[in-house]
Amino acid sequence: MNRGLWPSRNKYHAKRTEVDGHWFDSDREAKRYGELKLLVRAGIISNLELQKSYTLEVHGVLIATYKADFVYKDLEGRQVVEDVKSPATRTRDYILKAKLMLACHNIRIVEV
């Protein structure tokens, strides 16, 4: 059990990172958070949310849940759902959930 002596790593060997009291699964995700905060301050995006969950239901049956890394509104007021991905983290589960997000919520995930 990791007791805070070393940063914990996930199965993809990404280092968990804390920024502004928020924990991110990787340095890459934490860096993207910093970039998005700058875009918020510049007024380019708004309503930034972290780790927003979506239920994925088909005909009233819960199939799965999807947790987006970031959700925000762009300049035109459109909702953008982002997931920080490397090729190794594009698992079959993720690919299926991305298709379900499109089918259930008409949301196409933006991979960064």
Morphology = globular
In CATH terms, what is the fold-level topology? Answer: Trna Endonuclease, Chain: A, domain 1
Measured between the Cα atoms of the first and last residue, the distance is 31 Å
Rounded mean pLDDT is: 89
| H and E order | EEHEEEHE
- The computed structural class is alpha+beta
- In the residues, how many domains can be counted? 1
Q: Report the portion of residues in β strands.
A: 25-35%
Helix content: 25-40%
Gyration radius (Cα, Å) is 15 Å
What CATH architecture would you give?
A: 3-Layer(aba) Sandwich
Order of neighbouring strands in the sheet with most strands:
3-4-5-6
Discrete helix count? 2
- Highest-level CATH class: Alpha Beta
The biggest beta sheet is recorded as: 4 strands, mixed
Count of DSSP strands: 6
Low-pLDDT ranges: none
How would you characterize this protein structure?
With 112 residues, this protein is of the alpha+beta class. The chain has a single domain, classed as Trna Endonuclease, Chain: A, domain 1, CATH 3.40.1350.10. It is built from 2 helices and 6 strands. Strand 3 and strand 4 form a beta hairpin. The N and C termini lie far apart (31 Å).
